[in-house]
Every structure is written in C-alpha cells, then in structure tokens.
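[Automated response] Your request has been received and processed.

Submitted sequence:
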Amino acid sequence: MAEKREYRMEELARLAGITVRTLRFYRERKLIPPPRREGRIAWYDDHHLARLRTITALLERGHTLSGIAELAEAFDNGRDVGDLLGVGGAPTEEEPVHLTPEELADHFAGETTPENLAAAMELGYLGTDGDEIVHISRRLLDVSSALVHEGIPLADVLDAAKQVRTHADALAELFTDLVLRHATPQDLPRLRPLARSVVEAELSLALDRRMRRP
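Generated structure:
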C-alpha cells in the first residue's frame, strides 16, 4: 500500500497551483476538510490536494464557489461505496461508474444541487469511494444524463426513478414468486434474462399504446 503523504500549507498550495492566500480562503469557506494539527503545524494530505484540484476544475467549468461548497457538503455527507453496494456486493449485470465531482457536474450541468445529490443517494444511485463518486449503473447514469440534456430537470428525473423503483421491485417479486412455485432458487439466475425480456417487451408495447392515444 502506498505511503500516505502529508504536506505543509505552502507545499500543498504549490502542488495545487494556487496561492497560500487562496488556500486559506478555501479552508475558511469549508471547501476543504480541516488539516491534521501537530502543535502549531497544519498537515494536509492527498485528499486535500484532490479536493483543491477538483475546485479548480469546477471553477474552470463555470461553477460558482457557493455551488462548489454545496456540492462538497453533499459529497462529504454521502454514503460510501460499501453502503451503496450493500452486503451482497456489486450488481450482477449493471456496471458501476467511478466519477470525480467535476465529471459528475459535467454530466448534469447546473443540476448537481445538494437536494438532487441527496435524492440520488437515497435512491442508492450514488456513493463515495475516497475522493471519487460511484454511480451504481452506467446505463442509468447515461439515461438520466440524456434526459437532463433534453431539458428535463434532474429533480423530475429522480422523482420518476423513485416511482419506477417501486414498480420494478413489484415486478421482481412477481417473477421470483412465479419461478419459485415451479423451480428452485438456483434456477433464478438462469431464468433472469426471461424476466428482463418480458418487462422490456411489455414496456415497449405500453409506450406504443400511450403514443397512439389522442
């Protein structure tokens, strides 16, 4: 395991490409966590350096310091990746995505508010892994990002996702009960693609019916 590095304020500012005065300002605004203190000496680590580089990247993308502070607060209070994935481990078919805070902001330009982050974390979409954010599913990330870029507010997308989650849980329960009445739990993984195909086909037909309505 790599040895943890620590820096004094002047070295940290130099590595981050900012002035010591700016570093003090960020610390006063609570944009970075407090340093470790050893007597009168403040020690910073790679976590602080990553956060400072993130702040610089977000500022270059046009984000305000107030918005960055809100993002940092939500990020610091988020669940870690262990809570996100749960006891059962990673999803069996979905691909988790690791993102920096600025990459997440790029996916949802102007929509990464603390309220939206909290909603995404409550749904189990987002967790944290060190200085990175983890999204539970690349497909869900891509779809939600596409909807936002089509002009649909992220808050509405997340509200719809919460409703879809309720229906999806009910469908999963229905399929599981059906299989277990006639087969064993060991058969569930093998038959799982059939359940997905039924749901996809029925949703496609339902969309056809909905779009034909006046």
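Summary generated for your ticket: Strands lie at 6-7, 36-38, 41-45, 97-99, 126-129, 132-135. The chain has a mean pLDDT of 86.
If you did not submit this request, please reply to this message.
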